[in-house]
Each structure stands twice: as structure tokens, then as C-alpha cells.
Amino acid sequence: MYTSKHEYFGATLPRRQCTGRAQTRRLPDFPRPSPADSSSIPTRPTIAKPMFNRRRWIPGPVSLKARFSLAVGMLIVLTATVLTVAAVLIVQRGIETVVGEREVSLISQVARGLDNKFMIRQQALVRLARDLERRRHPSSAFQDKLEEHHSMDGFFSNLSVLDAQGEHVADMDYPETRGQANFSTRDYFVDTIRSDGPIISRPLRSQLSGRPVVIMTAPIHDQEGRISHILIGTIDLAKDSFIKELSIGQVGKTGYFYILSRDGEFVSHPDERRILQHIGQGGKRAPSVDQAMAGFEGTLRSTAEDGADALVSYKRLASTGWLLCGVYPTAEAFAFANQIRWNAAIIAALLLLVIGPVAWLLIDRQLRPLKRLGQQMAAGRGAVGPAGPYADDEIGELRRAFDTLMAERDRAERAVADSERNLRLVADNVPALVGYVDKHERFVFGNERYSAYFGISAAQIPGKSVREVIGEAIYKVSKPYLDAALSGRAVRFERQVQRHGATQWDRVAYNPDIDAHGVVQGYFVLVDDITELKATQQVLALSEKRIRTIADNMPALIGYVDTDYRYAFCNRAYGTITGIAPETIVGRSVSEVFGPKVFAAVAAQMAAALAGRRISFERPAVELKGNRYLQTEYIPDIGLDGKVAGFYTMVMDITERKAAELALAAQQRLLHTVTDNLPALVNFMDRDGRFGFVNRHHESWFGVPLARIHGSLVSSLFSEAEAEVHQRAFDEAMTGHTVKFDFARMQGGDKRHYHATYIPQVDCSGHAVGVTGLVNDVTDAKLLEEQLSALARFDALTGLPNRTHLTERIGRAQTRSARNGSVMAVMYLDLDKFKSINDSFGHSGGDTVLIEFGRRLSACVRQSDTVGRLAGDEFVILLEGLQNVAECAVVARKIIKVMEKPFDIDGVARIVSTSIGVATAENGLAGVDTLLKHADDALYRAKDSGRNRYAITSVK
Ligand SMILES: Nc1nc2c(ncn2[C@@H]2O[C@H](COP(=O)(O)OP(=O)(O)OP(=O)(O)O)[C@@H](O)[C@H]2O)c(=O)[nH]1
């Protein structure tokens, strides 16, 4: 059985030493700007430079590509190695198994061969012994017998016979040695006697030849069955024999066999010198031998006697109990496996040589985008154009991420730059000095304002000492505050400085810059030029003084009350009017100064003032002597934040004015009493035309309550037409003239007539401040007047229009004729011989004729024509809208015709005729007098021509 205890795989690859300790890499500390080096203090946040080092990204000894290639190469080598080793091991294991099994088979075969040879020899020896036994020979006869059996030469190097006493009685090859030695003490002799059977001795040195031999014995019995002799067959271990053959036989080309006796002596060995030597002799021996000596049989991996690695096989010979050993050096046994291993290594190396460059090229190709990205990253920029197209892989993702990162960085940088620019812009445009000074009193930053203050530009400031920048004098003034700021205290102070040849004031603020460890690193400087403020404060102080002077000289109480109802200010009048010293008032509450009763009287108003409302009220001052009456004003003091900080109080003694007002009120009442009982509208209109005073008649007149009339524009209460008339009169009255005018309006369903008088009201300087209006109802007088007027315009006898009326109508007809170009005519009529009728029938008879004459004339003309009586028996007819002059003749003839009918005069029929003079005119060319004169002329022509006829004349 083959076993392998010494594994090929037993050797593990040496593992790389690993300390197991994390290598913490210490990042370099960024040095904190040395306060001593003011220029090192960053004035703006800095963007960290890309952390990519160009050297790491440009191909070099440690380039990523090289590392990838190396890694891939190593992976390939490792894979190839593992595969090769695994394959080789499998093959080797197979070879080992095969070789081992072959060795086991071989040694077993050899062992069987040896056993077989021993058995053949033993059987031959026993047969010879029996043969000798059957023919009884004396000891001397054995020599001859032996010589007859040279056929045994092939089996044994010598045959000899010992008698039962160990005497050497016969010897085939060395007969002369007979009787020279006794072998009774020899083990093989003793063993044969004892066992009474054939035995094979242990290897021993022949007493006769001195050669290493193995003795095979076979007892020869006498007739009684006792051992009479012992046949000895000697096998010379060093000479040609089957054992010697074994020693020179080889296992493979370099292997060999050897045999060990039970005692560990070499029975056979290629090196003859070792035969009969004990295995332990010489020191070294294969460890597996002991195992085999203890009983192991089989093949195992061990070492040969020379220490070389070998497959060693052991098999114990059944015939002798010897140990047959076969040594097969692994160098030869596994030469094939070694060849395979070498071949595999060569193939792996070749693979590496081929795949390495290929991998290099492939990786170079794959890493090219990464390289470009690396170059971009080294240059600190993202994609120049629109991102992509990037491969849809990790590098593409990385590039997109980098582009995004760069875009964000660019945005951030721009934002920082903008911020810095804005900050600088803000700082430079702040109307103040803005700066930063380190703890060594050196400027780190100063805005452009320093140029105007100290003649040093912002660019020159960093690094300069405070003393250098602001000058010795100002530095001396500022030094205590500067020290305070550097000790960690924020300080504010004002300093008077000489700048540009003038005295100026600065308000300075130093705010310490304390770091996270509580150490002052410097301080911020803010300096305002408050020269103007100072001047303003002085002006203000002067102004306050003036105001106080004015307030103190005002005949009124002037004070200021805060939100706690405490006096913050009061003028001197408080002392004179209330009798309380002003200095005792300030700081005390109203209640404390004037008592709770007075405070209760004004508390509501004060609360309203503190709520932001301006309050004005009057009250009797019970706290003052002499029934005084006070006019009080509370004016809230509203700050810029919209909150009320207090209120001003101004109290005036209005006792006299109040008395006057009461008197005035009495007069007002009297006025109302009078005017309300007058049958007229009485009012006062202010300069804006608003009713200031109205008596009660206005309410019924306008149909509006008095309360609404008060303050209303007068024009708003009239109709549009009425308002126009009113406004004209009002405007004229405001110029200082009294205006009188009549107007009519529907009042209570009737048309009423009014007569208005607007009287200007002037102030002491003569300027009109308003108008007093008096409006009387003159409806009755107007009707009477109209009646009188009507009476004056008609003839009382005939009821026809009289001369006045006729004249008016002719005048208006002339206007219309001129407008429409029509023809108009005036007929002048006179009864013929009327005087005789009066004479005949009396004056009343004449009147009858006159009335009838008028009636007949009216019947002869159109409604639009006018028939009138001038005087006596003279009548006039006005004709309008004529087409031509001929129409007048028609009318004249028609009149003459109607006169043919007799008049009934007191029952007497009497023919009365008339003569007619007609004057016509076109286009209104002739006036009333001209037309009447021409008509009158025509009338006389008709009279002269015999009467009862008409004459026509045209006025051109
Ligand atoms: N009955 C009456 N007679 C009047 C009135 N007014 C004037 N007369 C008279 O009328 C007369 C007018 O006369 P004249 O027109 O002058 O003369 P005549 O008699 O008509 O003659 P001729 O006109 O020439 O035709 C006078 O005698 C007057 O006294 C009046 O109101 N009534």
C-alpha cells in the first residue's frame, strides 16, 4: 500500500509579513498663520487646491496603469501559477500514486521472487539431504557425495556437511578445510539441531572463506531419526547469486534494492562493503527504516541513505523474515512531474511575457479616459464644453462626478470671489474706516477709506504698524484703548484729531478677535467721522437751550411725560402757574405732582396720547386758584420705530378766552333767535362757499336737516342751474361788492320767487372772509308786478296789444326776418271819418266801432300775426313769414272786404271803412320806427287817394 506522509503540498507559500497594525498616516498640519507675519493672515477664504499631484497621475514608475498592469500581470501569474501548481500537484499526486503503487507491486514481486528462490533452494537442499539420508554414508563418504551434486552449483556457492557435533566433514569447494573447524556454536547449527528442520541463517561471515554468506541448512537423519549430519548450502552474498543479482538490480535508472536481516544487518546492498554491516553503522539511516523494521510494509516518501529524497518501499520476505528495501530517488521517480512543472512554469512565463504587454496595452486603452481625467484634475478644471459623451462606466461616472465637482468648485470659487469682491466693495463703500489689526499692532486689512483719513491706500496698509498708519499723535491718544482691545475687551471711544488742517472728531470701536482657545489674535477697527455729528450735537444743544428759553417764556405749561406718566421736562411756567418748582416736578409722576384727583381727570386723555393719538381738551382747573379754565394739548412722541416714547403736554390758561366764547355763544343764541323768526333765509358762507351759519328756515327750504347743511358747500344743495347763479353772485360778493339778484324755484309744488342779497364779510384788513346771505320770498310782489306789467302792454278798450307791446313784437319779428330772410310787413290802419261816428253816436258808440273793428281785423289774419291798437282809431297789423309782398295786398283787400258789412252801433247799422298803409321789408332790413313811418306814409297816400283803400310801400 502506498501512502504519502510527506506532502508536496505541505509546504505553504510564505505569506507576506503583515504587522497587523494600521498605518496611520499623519496629515501635515497647516501652519496657522503666524501672527507675526500679518501678510500670512488670509484676507479671503481660500479654496483648497486639487489634491491631485501631477506626478501621481502622469505615467511613471508608480503610475496607475503600471500598477494595474502589474496587478493584472501578477493576477495572471498567480492564476497561472495556482493553476499550474494545482495541475502539477494533481499530476504529481497521480504520478506518485502510480509510481508508489508500481513500487509496491515491484517490491512485492521481487520479494515473491526471492522467497520463491529461497524456497526452491531450500527444497533442493532438503531433497539432497533426504537423498543423503536414504543412503547411509559415513561422514567420510559425504565428500564424494557432495561432489556428485554439482548440479546444486546454480543454487549455492558451496555445499558442505557438518556432523552432529558441528565438525566439518565434507565441503564441495573447499575439501581441504574439512576437519579444521567446528561449527557447533554457530547459530544456524544450533537452530537446525533445535528445530530439526531446514533453516536459513542470518547473514554472517564465513569462517572458512571470510566472505559474507547466508547459510541454508537441512538436517540429515540417521536411521533412528536423529540428526546425524547437517547439510549446509552456502550462498555468497558478494558473489554471483540471486541475492547478488538483487543488489545489482536497479529500481529505474538510479534506484536500488537492499535487504536487511531481522537484526538490521545488510544482507544485500549495491555497495558490497556494507554487507553484514548493521544499518546503524555509520550513523545515518533513513528514518523510515525503523518504521519498516517495526513492521511497516509499503512505499513511502522518505530519504535515501545518502539523504536524497526518495520513494522507499519495504517488503518482508516470508521465507527469511528479512526486509527487502527498494529505494527509488524521487529525482527520477518524479522526473516526469518535475518536467511538467518546469514546462508549466515556462508556459506561465511565456504567458506573462505575452499577456503582460497585451494587458498593458488594454489597460492603457481603458485608462486613457482616466488619464485625461487625471490631467484635467491636475489642471484643476472640469469639462471644457458640454460634459460627455462619457462612457457609461465607472470612469465615465467619475468624469461626470468630477465635472459636477469642478462645476460646484467653480461656482463656489465664483461665489467666494463675488463675496470677497462684494465684501471689499462694501468695506470700501462704508462711510467709515474698516480695518483689522493683529496682536502685534500691525494692520492686516484696511479699506480705501484710510486713504481719505490718513493718505495711505488700502493696498499699502497690510503689514504696516498702527503707529505708521495713524500717526504718532493719534496713536498716543488711542493706545490705552488699543491695549484694552488686545486684552480682550471691546472698547468704544471718541477722539479729537487734527486732520487736513482742521479739528475733527472720530468715534472709534475696537472689537477683539478672540480665537477658539480664547487667545486674542487681533482686533477689528471701525472708525466713524463724527465731526458733523459733533457739530450737530452742538447745534442741537444750542437749539435745546433756545427751545428751553422759548418754553420758559411761554405763558403756558409745556412739559414732556414719559410712558410711566413721569415728567421728563417742564418749563418755568409750571413754577409760576402751579406754584410747584419745576426742578421738583421732573422725575415725578403726574399723580405725585398734582395728586390722584387731577391725574384721574386726565388719565384717559394721557392714555390716549400714549396710544399715539393727539388729544386736545378743555377742563376747569380745580387744582388752581380762581376758577381757571385750561386748554390742554397732548402730542404723542412717536419714534422712528413707530412706538410712542411719551407725549408733549401743552396747557394754556384760557379762562379769558372761555369767557369770551361764552359771551359769543350767548350772542349766537340771540342771533339764532332773531334770524329764526325772520321770514327770510339768513346764512353765512365762508370763503370756500360752505355754510357756516344758517337759520332754521334752511331746513324746510332745502328739505335737509340743519346738521347736514352746516359745513356743506352751498352749491351742493342747489340744482345745477341754481348753483351757477349762486356761485356767480358769491364770487362777486367775495370781491367786496354787495350783490342782489332774483331767482325762482319750485318750492312745495309752487313756483316761488326770491330776492337774494349777498353781503361780503370782511376782516379787519378789509379782505372778504365770507358772505352773509339774505334771501326773501318775493313771490307775492312779483305776481303783482307781473299783473301791472300785463296791464301796461295791452289796450284796455279792445284788449289788443298796445303800442309798447306792438313795438316789442315788431322788434322780435325783425330779428326773425333777419335770421331766416323772410318778408315781414306792417299794416297801418285808420278808420275813415271816425270823428263823425263819435259825433253821431257819442264816445261809447265810437268805442263799439273800435272794439268791432279790432275783432274783424283779428279774424282776417293768422294766429301768428299780431293785431294791435296804437291809439284812437289807429290800428297796426304785423304780418310775418310772407312769401312775397303780394300776400300783403291779399290781406289788405280781405280787410277792406270785411268792412263792407255794417257796424251795429246802438242798434243802428252803419258802414265804416278803413284806409290801409302797408310797409314791407325783407331780411329784417327795417327797424320798428322805419316800418311804422313808411306804413304811416302809405296810409296817408291811401287817405289822400279817397280812403277805403290800401297803399303798399317796400322799405329797401
Ligand atoms: N269814441 C272815441 N273817439 C275817439 C277816441 N280817441 C279819439 N277819438 C276821436 O277820433 C277822432 C279821430 O278823428 P281823425 O282821425 O282825426 O279824423 P276823421 O274824422 O277820422 O277823418 P279822417 O281820419 O281824415 O278820415 C277824433 O274826433 C277823436 O276825438 C276814443 O277812444 N273813442
UniProtKB/TrEMBL annotation:
Residues 395-429 form a coiled coil. The keyword Signal does not apply. Keywords: ATP-binding, Cell membrane, Coiled coil, Kinase, Membrane, Nucleotide-binding, Phosphoprotein, Transferase, Transmembrane, Transmembrane helix, Two-component regulatory system. The keyword Acyltransferase does not apply. NCBIfam families: GGDEF (TIGR00254), sensory_box (TIGR00229). The chain crosses the membrane at residues 68-91, 342-363. Residues 21-45 are annotated as: Disordered. It comes from the Bacteria. It is found in: Cell membrane. Gene3D superfamilies: 3.30.70.270, 6.10.340.10, PAS domain. Residues 419-489, 543-613 form the PAS domain. It comes from Massilia mucilaginosa. This is PAS domain-containing protein. Residues 822-955 form the GGDEF domain. SUPFAM superfamilies: Nucleotide cyclase, PYP-like sensor domain (PAS domain), Sensory domain-like. Residues 487-542, 737-790 form the PAC domain. It is a multi-pass membrane protein. Signal peptide: none annotated.
